[in-house]
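Researcher: Re-running this chain for the archive, since the previous output was lost when a drive failed. Same request as before.
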Amino acid sequence: MKIILTHEVSGLGTAGDVVDVKDGYARNYLVPRGFAIRWTKGGEKDVAQIRRARKIHEIATIEQANEVKAQLEGVKVRLAVRSGDAGRLFGSVTQADVAAAIKAAGGPDVDKRRVELGAPIKTLGAHQVSVRLHADVVAKLGVEVIAA
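Model: Regenerated structure tokens:
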């Protein structure tokens, strides 16, 4: 099935790309979550609009990405969450939580879809988080999860 991506999907493409995926993947995952729309002849107009919006929000050059990377790696991120007695969290830390904590710590505004956790964060302590700023630039930063 041909679809138009409306958001960046790792391993598949960026917003505005027209890709061919299996029908079930598109019908059951990408379209219901708003990551993609079905491709139509009229949808080509949408592609141009999505690409214009992407250019406004994305980091255009590797130099800009390296500047943002330096800012991110210099930020000390602490995230206060509710936890139980043994240090296990009630729920888990999400990408949106990390993006908000970066902004609150004085770092640059980061889109939550660019934050990669690797594994769900469900315990207190220090954790490594990656932020994909550009296709070739990934910032690694430490996030300290503390009890609220």
